[in-house]
Structures are given as C-alpha cells and as structure tokens.
Design brief:
The structure is a homotetramer. Chain A is of the alpha/beta class. Helices cover 34% and strands 18% of the residues of chain A. In chain A, strands 7-8-9-10-11-12-13-14 form an eight-stranded parallel β-barrel, surrounded by five helices.
Chain lengths: 338, 338, 338, 338
Amino acid sequence: MIVILKENAAVQAVQSLVDNFKSIGFDVHISQGSTHTILGLIGDTGKLDIDQIKMLEWVDDVKRIQEPFKNANRKFHPQDTVIKVKDAVIGGGSMTVIAGPCSVESEEQIITVARSVKASGAKLLRGGAFKPRTSPYAFQGLRDEGIRLLLEAKKDTGLPIVTEIMDLSQLELFNDVDVIQVGARNMQNFELLKQLGHTNKPILLKRGLANTYQELLMSAEYIMAFGNENVILCERGVRTFETYTRNTLDISAVPALKILSHLPVIVDPSHAAGMAKFVAPLSLSAVAAGADGLIIEVHNNPACAKCDGMQSLTMPDFDTLMKKINIMKEAQVACNSL
Amino acid sequence: MIVILKENAAVQAVQSLVDNFKSIGFDVHISQGSTHTILGLIGDTGKLDIDQIKMLEWVDDVKRIQEPFKNANRKFHPQDTVIKVKDAVIGGGSMTVIAGPCSVESEEQIITVARSVKASGAKLLRGGAFKPRTSPYAFQGLRDEGIRLLLEAKKDTGLPIVTEIMDLSQLELFNDVDVIQVGARNMQNFELLKQLGHTNKPILLKRGLANTYQELLMSAEYIMAFGNENVILCERGVRTFETYTRNTLDISAVPALKILSHLPVIVDPSHAAGMAKFVAPLSLSAVAAGADGLIIEVHNNPACAKCDGMQSLTMPDFDTLMKKINIMKEAQVACNSL
Amino acid sequence: MIVILKENAAVQAVQSLVDNFKSIGFDVHISQGSTHTILGLIGDTGKLDIDQIKMLEWVDDVKRIQEPFKNANRKFHPQDTVIKVKDAVIGGGSMTVIAGPCSVESEEQIITVARSVKASGAKLLRGGAFKPRTSPYAFQGLRDEGIRLLLEAKKDTGLPIVTEIMDLSQLELFNDVDVIQVGARNMQNFELLKQLGHTNKPILLKRGLANTYQELLMSAEYIMAFGNENVILCERGVRTFETYTRNTLDISAVPALKILSHLPVIVDPSHAAGMAKFVAPLSLSAVAAGADGLIIEVHNNPACAKCDGMQSLTMPDFDTLMKKINIMKEAQVACNSL
Amino acid sequence: MIVILKENAAVQAVQSLVDNFKSIGFDVHISQGSTHTILGLIGDTGKLDIDQIKMLEWVDDVKRIQEPFKNANRKFHPQDTVIKVKDAVIGGGSMTVIAGPCSVESEEQIITVARSVKASGAKLLRGGAFKPRTSPYAFQGLRDEGIRLLLEAKKDTGLPIVTEIMDLSQLELFNDVDVIQVGARNMQNFELLKQLGHTNKPILLKRGLANTYQELLMSAEYIMAFGNENVILCERGVRTFETYTRNTLDISAVPALKILSHLPVIVDPSHAAGMAKFVAPLSLSAVAAGADGLIIEVHNNPACAKCDGMQSLTMPDFDTLMKKINIMKEAQVACNSL
C-alpha cells in the first residue's frame, strides 16, 4: 500500500506517521519526491481500511498495490477451481449448460422442460421458485411449492437443480437444491452471503447491475471467508445508457474474472439482452471468450410464460443452440491449443 | 396501454387479439396506420405484464400510458404526504435534518454526537448498528449492541432514531427504532420490503446505485401495497463513469420524485460525494432544489471513525452547516412564494 | 406516431389538435381511453420533431412507432450491404481483418508491420496519422507525413489503407486513402459527417463513448443522406462504471445493429479493453457473434509504441490470432448453416 | 509517478529500469516491498505517457501522483480566474446569467428575446446559429444568417453574445462574437480546441456526455496550452441509465471543478433535464452549490421553437426565475461568509 503525503508535509509529521504504521506492524519505506513524500507500507495490508488511512492528517491519497480479496484471488490459487455437482463439472475449461424456465409454473411444465433440455444436452436444470419482481403486482413465483416441483423434476430426470434464494428465511427449503443462486439484486446482501458461507452448497453468484469485477469478487470473498469455496461467478449484463437491450452484456468480464480469480465463470445470455433472438449470438460469443458455462432460459410455451417470456427460447430453438454451442466449443478448444 | 402490431398483420390476427383482450375485461380501440395497426387497451392496465403482451404473436411493441405504481403516485394522491416522527415532521416542504455517525462505536461516542447534533438543530439521530461493507474483513458494526446504544442516546437526548436494517431476521430488534432505513444495496430486496410493509414504522428508502426513479417508486409501492404508507424517499447518488466523487448526486431526483409522487424526498450528501468537503455545497443545493430533509454523517473524531470517516463532518462543521441550511431554507421559501 | 393527450382534454382541444395535424398532411385516428385520449398520426412522420409535438398544449407524451433513420434501416433495404475496397469485401458475412499500428511512426515501422499483417492474413492496413489524444502534451501523430508513409506502405504491399480524419480541413490529404475512419469522439461531429457524405469513399464510423445504437445509425444517416452509402459501423466499447477495462465492449451491438441496419458491422477489440491480453478473447467473441470484420492494433515493438502500446499485439501474436480467427469463423459459418 | 514492478522482478531488471528512467532525467527512489518493488520517479512527470510506461517489461502498474493538467490547475494558480466580457464578469463568485433561445429563428424573435432577458437581468445573450442535431432531417440552424441576426440583437441591446461553433471552417464568422461556445459533442474535437487556443476570445467549454472532470480540464488545457487562458467550464448533465430526465445534472461538478481548477464554472440547467419545469429547481441548486453563472434557454414562444422548445422558459417565467436567482445568490453569499 502506498501512502502519498500532502505537499510540504513537515519532517515531524512524516516521522509521526511512520511511527504510527510501524506500531501496527508494518515496515515503511520513505520516498522523498520533488513535491510529495511517499510511504510504502510493507506487510499484510489486506485488512487495512483504505478510507481510514486517507483521513489521517497530512495524507493526500492512498493507493492499493494488492487486491483486497484473497480466497478468490488467482495469485494465491493459480489452478482453476472445478466445481462438481453430481455428474456435472463447472470450471477448468468446461462448457456446462444450465437450462430451464424463468419460473416454475406447474409440475407438467417443469418436467416437460427438464426432459427436453436434458435430451438437448443441458447438465443442470434451472427454474425460479422465488421470483424477484420489480412490481409487487407481478407474479412472485410458486415459492415453497416451486421448490417441491423442481425436486420432482430432479427425481424424474436426474438433473441437479439450480434455483434462486431471496432471503435467509428460505434457506431450510434449499436442503435438496444442488446449486443456490444469488441474484443480481442480492449480490451485496451481505447477511445472506455470510450464511451461504456456512453451507457447503455451490453458490451461483450473479454480478449486480452496476457492480465492478472487484465488488463481485469481494462478494465471493464473503462466502469463501466463512468457509464455502464453491462459488460460481456469473456475468449477466450491466446497466448502461443503452436501452435497446435490457442490459449490456460485458463480455470482457469472462477473461477479466479468469485473470483475477480461479473461480468458474459462466454467462447468462437470457437476462443480458432480454430478447430471445439475442440468446444464440451472445451464447456463442461467451463460448468463444472462454466461459465455463451458460445459464439459459427455455420454456415450453414462451408466449404464455408467467415471467420473462420475451427472453426464453423454445425447446426446439434450445436444441439447435446446443448443437451450435458444441461446434463453437470445439473451435474454442482448438484455438486454445494454438 | 398501446399495443403496436407488426406490419401487415392480417385482419383475422388483429381480430383474434382484440377478442383476447376483450375476454379479459378491456375495451379495445383499433387504429389502422399506414404501416401498423395499433390497439388501445382501455381499463385497469396496471396489473398487465407488459413483457407478456410483447410475446403475443403479431405484437411488435407495447407502450404504457399510465405509470405502474399507484399508492406512491401523486396523480391519485395530490397532497404531499407528511410523516410525523415524534416531534419531527418530514414532507410538505419541511427541511428536517437527520444527523449522526456512520456507525455507532461506543456509548460515549453516540451520546456525544447525539447531544451535539441536537444542539445544532438536527431533529433525528442516525447511526449504523448493522453495516453493509464491501469487504468481509471490514468492521461490520456493533449490531445488537449498536441498537442498544442508539436507544440510550435516544433516552438521553429525546431524539428519535434512524438506523439501517440489513436482513429480515433483525426486525424484532427494531421495535423501539423510530425510522427503519433500507440501504441502497437492499432497495430491491423485495422480501424485506414486503415485511416492512406489515409494520407501521416510517421507512427511509434509499435509491439503489443504478436504479431509476420508477424502480425506486416501485420499491416504495412494495411497502405501501402491504399496508405501510410511511415511506421517505432518499436520493444518495448513483453510479456513473465519474470516479472523482464516490457517487454522482442526481439532484434532479428531488423535483422529479416530487412530481411523480406525494412522498417526502430527502438527500444524503455524505454518501453522494464521499468527501467531507462536498457535504456543505451538496446540502445547500438540495435545500435549494426543494428537498424535504437531509441525512448527514457527523462524527466526534472523523479521522478515527470505524467507517466512512472521509465523508463525516466534525461537530463544529455540522453546526456551521446547520446555520447555512437555515439561511438557504429561508431563501427557498421566499423563492417558492414568488 | 402516437400522441397521448393529457387527462381530461376537452373535446374542442382534441378537435383543434386533430385539425392541426390534418392541415400538415396527416391522417389522424382518435382513441378515447378511460383516462387519456390518444391520437394516431398516419403518414410520413420521419421528419416530425418529436420534441416540438410534446410542447403542444394538451399533449402529454409522444411515442414514435417508426425508427427515425431511413437510409440505414434494414426495413427498407433487407439485403446486407457489402462494401468493396480493392480486393477486400466487408459485409454480408465476411470476416475481414484490418490491422496495423495505432500510429504511423516511421517508414520502416509501417512497412514492417504492413508486410507482416498482410502475410498473416489482414486485408487492409490501419495506421493513425492524425491522433486524437486526451492531453495536448502527448504525441499528436505525424499528420501529413503519416499519410504519406501509409501510402508508401500501400504501394509496397498492395493493402488498401484505413486512417482517421480529425477535421474537415484535412480532407484533401485523404484523396488516396481507401477508407476514412471517423473516431468515437467525432461520431457526432455533424459538419464532418455531412462533408464525408459528399465523398464516395467508404467511411468507417466508430460508435461514440456513450452513444446508443440509434444515435450511431443517425450519424450513418448523416453520411448517407448526403449521398455516400458506404458506411461501415464499428463497435469499440462504451464507457461504464467498470474501470478495470478501458471501455466495456458491447458485444450485443453486433446482432442489434445487424437487425436494425443492413450496413456492415465490425469490432475493435483493441480499444474496447485497452490491454493486449484481451484482444484474442474479444476478437473471437466478435467472430462468434457474427461481426463482419475486426480492426486490430499490431505493432513491431509495442513497448516502444508512441501511443496505445498497451493494447497492441506483437506481430507473432497477431499471426497466431489470425489462425484462431479462421478456426472460429469456420465454426460460426457452420453454426449459421444449422 | 509511482511505478510498481511485477512480483519477483530480478535485481538486474530493476536496475535496468532505474537506469532507463535516470537517463531521461528523473531521480528514482526504490522501495522494496514484501511482494513488489516500487519505483518513485522524481521530476516533471507531466509529459510522460503513463500507458507507455505500463508497457515496459517487469512493470505491473503505474500511478500518477500529480494531475496531468497544468495551466488549468488550481495548484499552480490559486486565485480564481475572472473573465470579463464587455461589462459582464464571469468567475470569482459571480452569478452571471446567459440567456436566449436555443436557436436564432428570425430578427424579430432574437431581438424580442434579447430585450426581454436583458430587462430581467441577463448579462449575455445566447442563441444557436449552427445547431448540432442528432438527425440530418432536423432544422440545422440559420448558420451565417443566424450569426448576423445575433449581431443585430447585440447592436440593439448592447448584450455581448455567446454562440456555438461546430467546425473550424466557421471560425472567421465569429470575429464579432463575444464568447465562442464549444458544445458537449465537440469537447474532444482537439483540432478545434487547438485553433481556439490561438484566438483571444473567451471559450465556453461544455462537458461531454460521458467525460470526466479530468478530461474536461484536459480539453481546457488544449485551449490554454496554445495561448488562450479565457476558458469557462460548463456542466450540462451527463448520460446515465436514468431516462426520465434528458441528462443527469452532476451538481458535484461545481465544487469539484472549483477545487481542481481556477477557471469559472457555470451550469446549463436547460440541457441538463430537458424539461422547462426542471429549469428553476436546477438553477437554484446550482446557485446554492456555488456556480459562477448559468446559461438558460428562453424563447418568446416555446411551443413553436424550432428546437428544444420543451426545455425553454417563456420570457415571463425567466423573469420570475431571475428574481429567485437573486434571492438565492444573496443567501449563498451569506452562507459563504459564515
């Protein structure tokens, strides 16, 4: 950590700061510049609060050299983390597809979709039981009953299931859920993250609407710091000034997160654009960019879906897309070997 | 609600859509344009799901005429809502100042600050017990003990208290809290909003980092739809590309929210900029723009604050700012009377 | 165009508006809703100023049904535009790579790079002569001399050249340039666009830092309305809150622009991320998403480049990338045929 | 400037970098941290290209200590710059109002408005002759004739005039214009800025849609570096995800730019929100925040304005607003004296 002092800081002031930092366990190197004195703190600065140091008298600015996340950091864990969910693996160059309806609507619907996406090659089933909706007047999901129906579909098809938790109080309903999803709006629901850190379930953590890579990794860190290292990062589009698409898919998040972290990175092309016709090109671009998986909305009858029908693929369209994904993944592997 | 059909929709297709809408209780007016047929739906369209209608065959686009929020809408409630918290009132042209430290750190600290801000003219005391922090390694607040100390300060000074809830499970600790704050990161924690709708406490609802006015009002609608009409809206800066300030205060939110809604609107200048030296100019601009109140961070020793010291005012600086706020409020009232 | 009147507009007011619109040549359909009267204007509304209509008494809101761009609109020109530049073609499913240094630095440099990128498979040579730099103290390009050196490289290799114009006064220097680039910062330099509309040169038009698809297409429309239909659209990343990458590549722009317009769409992965290590994954994702080409920065010695060295590939790295692009393009074609 | 080396940089590599920096005239201090070696460069680093240094082998990151702008920097010019335009002064705590129509439409119109705004207290007259319009089909301004009419209005009223230049080729028409405006879309039209640096006219430089304070100041630096120190900075709203207002007024720009620079800062409330009803609250908030002036659109008949009528005030509304501005300015001065 580098501490830049204000211009003309007096010798005594500098010495007092240096003593201060030494007293809490850091080595300090002093550089005297033409206008500013700069202190380099040596030691474990990860737990220092950068804002508090900025407040100290004579301090002009503070710059971190090391990232503030540790467990999620590739520097301390160079190998890719690979997460196993029953027969599925996510990470380490996988292309694992999670598919299913936005929300669970009936036993017939979820089983129909589950069988279909399994036949097409999906390895996990997604489906919303608890639905975060902007309007209190919109369909809020089947809730407990939705979880029960997902478990039926799991029993029927053998596909492990992924579904979203919206509040801590729902946690006990997730005992037989295979992967717990934390939605974009809850990415910084820190109480929830802490409790998920006490489980041993894989957590699919979606990036918030306006959160940076570092903030996403700090939220992963919350889960990991409490003991659960099974975190799957998910890019699902961020909010920008462009309104033609629902969100703006930040495809650079794939290589960026893989540089910064060892955790698997998947992409949600359905929420990214919000329109079914964008799902194929965005899925293929994510495969090409090196994503470890995709989470895709598929519905047996999108026009009648209780939510997000606009962005859901039909089952035949998903089947075609899976064929394209396979072609593209092969090309991506071939590229990687060059 | 206006439903725009695709070019060249056949007569039969149009008729079938019209029948469909009539069967669910709407009157439909048909306009035949040069390229598109347009349907006007007449009736209570507030509960229709715009995305679902977009999915219907032959539908090209759907545009809402009415806002999707009702309880929070000024159209149906022209008078300003005024919220009373003990002796304080918020709304209807008030300039009510809420002040206190970012986080409660000790009994001595909170009582010192409480007495001081009361003497300067603050009408409510703020203080964080549960702290949402980006890093799991940062100070997370005194939690239960923090609430207890706030209640001590309330007993000592008579100031009603405002503090943030981070999770539903904390709710019973808030029995004697006067105003419950929902932070920016929880603005779309819908399960929390619903439960707060079942209380009768005033809720201070902060705008999310990247949420629109309409989304903020839809979150207020969640609380109001479940029975609690005491919602105070708070603009605290949004996230943009500018990094010099911590967030970008959207001062237009004040007149915009007051046009759209009857709820009180306050401004948080401390979080908006993230630097103490911006608190005075931003506070004064909020007064001039017509805000009903301000929530300001004040600390007895900002350089040693356990969080957000950079943006906290000292007690003497807050005292001076209150004098300025009073001058400015008087000018704003004089302007209003022209 | 749909004109929504204020609640309770009197019959006479409605009639007066209708007469008004009829007098300027529109047919008008009236829909009487439960709260609002809505007028549908039928005729060529492309030249109506939406803001002016919003100003009319009793008008509450105005919504366009048709896009405001015509020449660039795929609706009126369903086939892909294919632009020929000597032996190269851009558009219609091509994967044409433009490569070269950020700025032309010397005859040796530009010829070395030109020969190398040609050997690797690039079809056009890029190189900056006039350089838009944030700082007046940074290298501003070799200017006239830079153009001369590019023409030398063209003579040597036969590659057509692409270079950026920064001001109308430079136009005569571009006589022998094959493709004129308009940079992101000049996307709405309307005087420049108009004059380029009077040339017959292909124009490579980069999307501005914070411009929507529609604004990009309106800028293309400026060029096309004045007679030049040879416009190549270029996505190069937009500005968001994320600062890890220099810009945020909006990969959805590729399918979106191809839906909205018949013009070719290429991607600039070098400026999008600003770091060499992102160029390969972003290039491949653009190929997978269906881009018609790429424009990539390549330098014989990136560490000594006079600008943007951080985002330039070495010549060997570009050679490897071209092999990957070819593999990926083959996969994309195979996917398309499904 | 601080240069952070990669982990485990070899002693020889470090020495070679140090020699390299010394050879180009810098003193270098070396700090050996636990994981990284850090070099502090001492000397005039303002002209170093930060990106080029990042490219050097073994360099991990580079951080600037000093701002890259000099002429515009308050550190080297602590007193406020005050710009005189005939009898008007802008800067140093002034509240100078520039008013007039978005575009000049006729002699009668511009003279009517000019006389009216002068009577209400405006000190300069604005009016667009060259109009940057998103659509090539929209009114583009009266151009040369518009300038002529502005000069008539100046002769009639004595008010100095402010009007926008869109291209260098128009410069000779601006001989008798008092203040040349550079619009948001041209903020980084560097060729234009350079030439304006060779004039001695005050330049009103508007912040771009998505440009940072530092970029605005670097554009001012372009003008100043070429000899013209008369630059007026103008905040006019930035582009965000919020679409209710046309742009998002960044009120913090006022105190921020005044901390960073000695140049006058004015605010454009008309373009910021794009709606007439927001002009008064935003104007008052700008006064309260300490702006040196305002530029406000006023029209004799907003409903018939050829552009931007929605955001134009009527002449009586402007007259009332001026009274409010005077009240608010008095309050702001009183606050400042505390």
